[in-house]
Amino acid sequence: MLHPDIPLSRHGIYDAPGPDDQDGVIRQCQIHFIAEAIRETHREAVEALFMDQPPKQTGSMKPRIQLVDWPEFPAVERLLPRKTPNYGLGPITENEGTIDGTYAVIRNIFVDQLGYNPDTDFDGSLRLVYGDQKTVSLIQVVKKEQAEATLPYDRCNWLLPIPGLFHWRTNYMDMIHELYSGTEAAADETTLHHNKNFLGCVQGHKSPFHHKEEVATRAFDARVTAKFYLLLRSFANEKDKDIQLSTDEEINHYIKNMTRASFHRIIENIRDELFTMAEQQSENMAKLFPDRPIDFPFSTHAKVLQQIAIYKIMKKAIKYADIGILRRIFALCCFLFHGSKKSKYAFLSLYMTWLTQTPAASPELQKAILANGLVNIRGAEDSWFEIDRLNEFFNLQMKSLMTTRRTSTVEVTPMFQRMALTASYCTELKAKLEAEFGEYSNGRHQIKDASMDVRNLAHEIAQSDSIQKHLNGRDSWFKPPDILSRGSSEALAKGVEKFNQQRLHGGCQGGEEPSHLTSTPIAALDKFVTIADDEDEI
Description:
The structure is a single chain. By secondary structure, this protein is mostly helical. The protein contains 23 helices and 6 strands. Strand 3 and strand 4 form a beta hairpin. Helix 3 packs across helix 14 and helix 18 packs across helix 19. The two termini are 33 Å apart. It comes from Penicillium argentinense. InterPro entries: DUF6589.
């Protein structure tokens, strides 16, 4: 049940499980990803340290590694693994990028295709609709315009738009690169542009999002590994000052022969130094206490690590369908998106926190909102992904089919209508035929092992000494903003006030005017209609 009259409070966001982390879940996640970063760059040595028995080979499958005493990703509230049934809808030729088109799409789906009766089937019911930021905004505008209608169907109170988590991830990754890239020609190892150039990461066939994700995750691993090198040498020199640990072979040998407790101690030290709130406030502290020394390069590394860690936590929580951790991420994003001035997703962060962490939604509805945003095609424990990503897979499949089957004698519109109706069936038929004949088509690209590149960047960062805390302070030309501090102050208070005002007046479209949403630019290219992206979307 939904109670739209219950407001969202700023104190409720501060006291939510994510920001205060009283149960230590976020800390456990950070420690897990620190350990995984070192495992990624020194896999053989780390696995040798944490294995009691060699892995067992079962058939042609890759041997499963069992690590003992390893910092695992915490489980808070995971969904039970199951296969998610999904069905493709028939063709919809309306322009969903406008308000009029949104009206038509809603009617086409729920009345024309699903066959609901507008007079009897929409009273007292609630249906969840997932999409990107613009879809959520347009549906909220429709609900606001229809608030005084007579029929329940026309009032649209039965519609509850929910932002898809895949588009959420893409916008969060955009935020990271906008904040921490620096200039293209930057020679400062604290910037992502330097890291990208050093690693030799090129976009190639990858989408802009996957390219950005690759750069960010490798930059995370390199920073953690660089700090690990410094602490490992310090730890080793306590026992023997002649130990250098300057080559990968020496480091691997030392890791294999150290104790697990010593490894855990170093991991905890990395977390305690680089994942603190104090390092998120360097800009603010410099203004409040001009005479206090601030180590800006170290603070920049810490900010990069902490923001990327939140992204990694969200991605893995989706993979394991841990809706308890996802609740925490929404509350944290309230601060981060407000601090980075990404107004649309700042508003959606408040919206999702209101829906999942306040009495505005009953516990059953909260779980339904989070659970129905995820799908699992394989039915495995770790094969969950976002429902809007499933839609993107379908769009890609449609694009591929239409590209390969289009000829000069076939009209685009009837071909689109035919493909939309048969795409899901053809996919299932292909899988059945491959299983019957034992032949499989693998369209995935082999991922390059980047561990050597990441280790080289880690050595570069370690030698620069920028990731070593200097108590006397250091200046830097690159000083990214303290988005957590900014988002914790007036920006959040104003955002909550604006959210409650819009909610009470019948909509949560993120401050956008209907006139702005109507004027979505459309470009017809060879009869294929494409809609321009929002400023907050890819």
